[in-house]
Design goal:
Keywords: Carbohydrate metabolism, Glycosidase, Hydrolase. By secondary structure, this protein is of the alpha/beta class. The chain is built from 19 helices and 35 strands. It has four domains: 11-296, Glycoside hydrolase, family 3, N-terminal domain (TIM Barrel), CATH 3.20.20; 323-407 and 554-663, Rossmann fold (3-Layer(aba) Sandwich); 420-548, Jelly Rolls, CATH 2.60.120; 715-830, Immunoglobulins (Immunoglobulin-like, Sandwich), CATH 2.60.40. It binds beta-D-glucopyranose.
Length: 833
């Protein structure tokens, strides 16, 4: 008996659970199919089932209601920029450990939607624009999470490449594109990683044969996922995505999230009783829930005995040295060198006496994107401190260089020394609860007591200097808000869960109010706020109090001051980028420009100091019109809790920034093949077909600023001989590439192999990624790197024929450093089958 044969195959487990399900009362069975709360499922002590807990998401485990900090990882696009499955594996193990610490059974990650357009709002949450890179990263991550006994949930199935009108649009994708591109990473994660759960998306899908919301799409959920791929896990809906009872239940959805409430429950019970939904369908869903519970150790199987959540002792928290070290190393390794003239980087720690650190994002780095991926990190980023540590003999000064945000900053402690008094009132105006928040306060009032009808907020602003102060109030839902006696902001419109889905609860619009004082004064801010009942997203009230003093320098003056500081320094480090107003779940970006006057800032600083390094702090592409005019440019991503130390490591060369772009960086907005994410008449039509990302750039012959796969690292490489092994129907082809590290430090190269078809074919991309392998090579050494290109890389989906088919002929295999820096070529002959 081999070791493997002792593990029951999934099918056995689900079959076993079907038998268990069939013995339960129909009411119990149906109840298990809707969440109990926003993040938990129902327990059923009669069979020893405890409540399962799920939690977001791709950069860490937020938890189900505690306020304990979480390990905050670099954004998934940064993870993918490592092109390193071992890194994804290490992060997956950390994710599982965080899930256990937070008593979570299933982590709502990874996102394997593709970066179809650079303006996509959740671009930073996706790995890549490429289906092969995405699939490989996701498989490594899921295997590691699940290998540690925690479930993963691959999402959002399918066609959730836009955020605009995400709960209603239909993605129109032809069946060939669906198979070859958008289903591909899901297929890998189901078949190669055995993912426990899949999340059905908000949007709908029209594949030419069926047009339906993803939660009701029989073809997607049953025909492809469960029947063809044999998926024996659980399909849950995205949060509040399910709109129907019979259609979704019959299509193959297994679990409605969140709960309580929603379209199943009593309505599903009635559908079963009337015979519209067969009981066997319910049993299948319940069996899938129970199978996940069994795997998670949540099902004792002993009536009346509910296993408590088992947390092994000694789990490291997000501040543990091993966790910090891992996150710091990944953030450094994912950083992409876009330009490094005359090997300006790295900078020896003792080579500079003064460093001018410049930029809004230098003072307030954007380390995580907005939306459901958000976690509370153990500490706030402090880039000046990180640089002072890395350059111990240098003087580091910090300069904002001009504001880049639409909103002014949250009011700080010195303006609101007494903090904020928050009261929950019942309908009669009686105080149910009183809370206090120190400034700065993010303005969220969550978990209000039952019976709360409205919330009041009061604070005294200390205006310490004469002049014009500006107070900005950003509020969600119906409210009245005053500064002094002035009614500054008011609305009678009562908000619901739409404000969570469209992101406006996280980023409320603001009203600015000038306050002129001739001498120091204290001015009260008072507000009465609606309690928003956002169904499964919870009940909350929200008011942000933002403030700007009269003495705040105008942006122009700040920019000039930064340029002066740069001129006087040995080294200028300018950090430009996006911010939470730009990159978030809930909306798509309107353009690719850096916000504010950051382009001007870079140009003027670089003109003032020839030793200027520009660091781009963004998850998704932004236009860098000065890219080839400044000496050194690094892409730093949304780097997570250890990003600042990682950047310091990169600057001094303690770690090589070995990242390669997992997407294409456009040079101009006009060149972008898919420039927007906006549905037309409710439809997002994927007219580019299989030409996603770099494939479209190649088809159109457009020149990006930096191409897919690009990254200079700190070293130089030579490519030698390339050989293709013999073709094998089961294994594809192994391509062997000789490379040499011709520089003076160890380095990691990512050898990328792209395929070109036997003959130009308008239905196949001009060139596509077939495989890649990373190799660490010592200075002056050579390496023989083997890149496996699997059979699927050669296949096409024949809609009218047998499905997958391998067109015969001579394929060109081109290996190199990026999708455009192809150094060597060989061929493989694929015989007719
Ligand atoms: C997002 C999902 C997330 C869920 C729960 C939804 O709005 O689309 O990715 O897992 O909320 O937070």
């Amino acid at each position: 008996m081999t070791a493997d044969s002792t593990v029951p195959p999934q099918r056995t487990l689900v079959d076993e659970m079907r038998r268990l399900a069939a013995g339960l009362a129909i009411e119990d069975r149906v109840r298990l199919l809707t969440g109990a709360t926003a993040w938990t499922l129902h327990e059923l002590p009669s069979i020893g089932l405890r409540s399962l807990a799920v939690s977001d998401g791709p950069i860490g485990v937020r938890g189900t209601g505690d306020s304990l900090p979480s390990a905050q990882m670099p954004a998934p696009s940064a993870m993918a920029a490592t092109w390193d499955e071992d890194v994804l594996g290490a992060l997956g193990v950390l994710m599982a450990s965080e899930a256990r610490r937070k008593q979570v059974d299933v982590v709502l990650a990874p996102v394997v939607n593709l970066q179809r357009t650079p303006v996509g709002g959740r671009h930073f949450e996706c790995f890549s624009e490429d289906p092969v890179l995405t699939g490989r990263m996701a498989v490594a991550f899921v295997r590691a999470v699940q290998g540690a006994g925690v479930g993963a949930c691959v999402k959002h199935y399918l066609g959730n490449e836009s955020e605009t009108d995400r709960t209603s649009y239909i993605a129109r994708i032809d069946r060939r594109t669906l198979r070859e591109v958008y289903l591909a990473p899901f297929e890998r994660v189901v078949l190669d990683a055995g993912v426990w759960t899949v999340m059905a998306a908000y949007n709908g899908l029209d594949d030419g044969t069926e047009s339906a919301p993803a939660t009701e799409h029989h073809g997607l959920l049953t025909s492809i996922l469960k029947q063809e791929w044999g998926f024996e896990g659980l399909v849950m809906s995205d949060w509040q995505a399910t709109k129907s009872t019979d259609e979704s239940a019959l299509a193959g959805l297994d679990l409605v999230m969140p709960g309580p409430g929603g379209p199943w429950g009593e309505a599903l019970l009635a559908a079963v009783r009337s015979g519209r939904v067969p009981e066997s369908a319910v049993d299948d869903k319940v069996a899938r829930v129970l199978a996940v519970a069994q795997r998670a150790g949540a099902l004792s199987g002993r009536p009346g005995q509910v296993e408590p959540y088992r947390v092994p002792g000694g789990l490291p928290g997000p501040d543990a040295p091993a966790v910090r070290g891992l996150l710091r190393s990944v953030a450094a390794r994912s950083t992409v060198v876009l330009r490094n003239e005359n090997a300006m980087l790295p900078v020896a720690a003792d080579a500079v006496r003064t460093i001018a650190l410049i930029g809004d994002n230098a003072l307030d780095p954007f380390v995580q994107g907005g939306g459901s991926a958000h976690v509370v990190p153990p500490h706030q980023p402090d880039l000046p401190a990180a640089l002072r540590e890395a350059f111990p003999t240098a003087e580091v000064t910090a300069h904002p260089g001009g504001a880049t945000r639409r909103h002014i900053p949250l009011a700080l402690y010195d303006v609101v020394p007494g903090g904020f008094k928050v009261r929950a009132l019942d309908a009669a105006g009686a105080v149910l609860e009183e809370r206090h928040h120190d400034a700065p306060w993010d303005g969220w009032v969550r978990a209000v007591p039952t019976g709360t009808a409205e919330v009041t907020v009061g604070a005294d602003l200390r205006l310490a200097e004469p002049g014009r102060h500006v107070v900005e109030l950003c509020v969600v839902g119906a409210h009245r808000a005053y500064v002094g006696q002035d009614l500054v902001s008011a609305s009678d419109h009562r908000a619901g869960s739409e404000v969570v889905l469209d992101g406006s609860a996280g980023h409320p619009a603001g009203t600015s109010h000038p306050v002129d004082v001739a001498s120091p004064a204290t001015v009260p801010v008072t507000a009465t706020l609606q309690v928003v009942d956002a169904a499964g997203f919870g009940r909350f009230a929200r008011l942000e109090v933002r403030y700007r003093p009269p003495s705040k320098a105008p942006a122009d003056d700040e920019l000039t001051a930064a340029v002066q500081a740069a001129r006087a320094a040995d080294l200028a480090v300018v950090v430009v980028g996006t911010n939470p107003e730009v990159e978030s779940e809930g909306w798509d970006r309107r353009d690719l420009a850096l916000p504010g006057a950051q382009d001007e800032l870079v140009r003027r600083v670089a003109a003032a100091n020839p030793r200027t390094v520009v660091v781009v702090n963004a998850g998704a592409p932004v236009l860098l019109p000065w890219l080839d005019e400044v000496p050194a440019v690094l892409w730093w991503w949304l780097p997570g809790q250890e990003g600042t130390g990682a950047l310091a490591d990169v600057l001094v060369g303690a770690v090589e920034p070995g990242g390669r772009l997992p997407w294409t960086l456009p040079a101009s907005a006009e060149d972008v093949p898919v420039p927007d994410a906006v549905p037309v008449d409710g439809v997002v039509h994927y007219t580019e077909g299989t030409d996603v990302g770099h494939r479209a750039w190649d088809r159109l012959g457009h020149s990006p600023a930096r191409e897919f796969g690009f990254g200079l690292g700190y070293e130089a490489w030579e490519y030698g001989e390339v050989r293709a092994g013999a073709w094998s129907d089961s294994a594809g082809v192994i391509v062997t590439v000789e490379i040499a590290n011709v520089a003076d430090r160890p380095s990691r190269e990512v050898v990328q192999v792209y395929l070109e078809p036997p003959a130009a074919d308008p239905r196949r991309p001009v060139r596509w990624l077939g495989g890649f392998t990373g190799a660490e090579v010592a200075p002056g050494e050579r390496a023989s790197v083997q890149v496996a290109v699997p059979p699927r890389a050669f296949q096409v989906w024949d809609e009218d024929g047998p499905g997958w088919r391998t067109p015969a002929g001579r394929y060109r295999l081109r290996a190199g450093r990026s999708s455009r820096d192809l150094r060597v070529t060989t061929v493989v002959d694929v015989p007719p089958t």
